[in-house]
Amino acid sequence: MSLTELELETSPGEAEALEERLFALGAQSVELFDAGDEPLFEPPPGSHPLWSAVRLRALFQDPLQAEIARAALQAPDSGAGGATPDARLSRLDDRDWVRAGLAGLTRIHCGGPLWIVPSWETPPDIAGGVYVHLDPGLAFGTGSHPTTAMCLAALAAAPPAGQTVLDYGCGSGILAIAALKLGATSALGVDIDPQALQATRLNAERNEIAAERLPTAAPDRDVPAAAFDLVLANILAGPLVDLAPTLARAARPGARLLLAGLLDRQAEAVMAAYRDTFEIAIGDRRDDWVLLVGQRR
């Protein structure tokens, strides 16, 4: 599979907005680099770059989508610090990018009986172990990122036995599949990316989960109202705020809420969007990331 790289330079103050904009325009990944050859370490997640100039490199699976993204960034009203005239596109050689990115992954103990086991590894021989066999494909979610790890730990600590689950922004399907393996009766996986829905279906099959137990849907389909005992969303802070009415409508009274994909400094804004309908607080922290835990009133 070949990819298209979009590269541009910006100031530190505009880097975060441009990164979010690139993801919104369909980038599969975005990396930040020192554009001024300054001997400074890359900053941790959530902090502003220390460099005087920042280079962003975004990868797109669809070359047309990359062209559209460049045109959008070059527009004077791009919404990310004005026009970005020096965005450059280049075609990368064919390579199995997914396998290259997953080469270092190994099985992960999430807590309690729950393990994430890559499809190419053998599960550990542990009595009562619950194993999610995973091949994430092009979709986000391997269990190694702090946001996913916190969600998995929360599921392992309080298994959703007999519950119905909504996984909004399902990515690889890892959270929905883990919930089902821990005893949930059914789960609905929702994602804007067709590749994510495909990855979720394939991973469900790999874990011998029947299609009727884990249906998938795009966000334009109405999510059933008051239908879920557990609502999961591991995405970004902005979409989490926007989705508050949708997720509140989907949750039954007393339903549990797990929100991730946000940084510590973003927690208050996200919690404020949910306080009218949920009792909500920070439930876990790892690095600069936080997990919000709530209960539907």
TrEMBL record:
It is found in: Cytoplasm. One of its GO terms (biological process) is methylation. Its EC number is 2.1.1.-. GO terms for cellular component: cytoplasm; ribosome. The keyword Ubl conjugation does not apply. S-adenosyl-L-methionine binds at T148, G169, D191, N234. The keyword Ribosomal protein applies. It catalyses: L-lysyl-[protein] + 3 S-adenosyl-L-methionine = N(6),N(6),N(6)-trimethyl-L-lysyl-[protein] + 3 S-adenosyl-L-homocysteine + 3 H(+). One of its GO terms (molecular function) is protein-lysine N-methyltransferase activity. Its main location: cytoplasm. Keywords: Cytoplasm, Methyltransferase, Ribonucleoprotein, Ribosomal protein, S-adenosyl-L-methionine, Transferase. It comes from the Bacteria. Methylates ribosomal protein L11. HAMAP family: Methyltr_PrmA (MF_00735). Belongs to the methyltransferase superfamily. PrmA family. This is Ribosomal protein L11 methyltransferase. It comes from Thioalkalivibrio paradoxus ARh 1.
